[in-house]
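Format notes (please read before filing issues)

Several people have asked whether sequences and structure tokens are stored in separate files. They are not. Every record keeps both together, in the order shown below: the sequence lines, then the token lines. Line labels are part of the format and must not be stripped during preprocessing.
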Amino acid sequence: VVLCQLHQRALDAGLFAIRPEDLTIVSKENGPAPEALKIDRQNLSHLTASPHPQALEWLWNAWSG
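Then the structure lines:
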């Protein structure tokens, strides 16, 4: 998943993930809110090219597991 530097670091740090089924951006219950991470969309459905489903599934499993 290609993101800007800020969001890539937040994703790598596990501060949020992208639910593969509906591309919803989800943050940890005890972590910073999406607004604090400067995330202004609730999902990635606006993208013309979606991230690879297997990549999202791998990231989701690593984050939620």
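For reference, the curators noted about this record: Helices lie at 5-12, 53-64. The chain has a mean pLDDT of 93.
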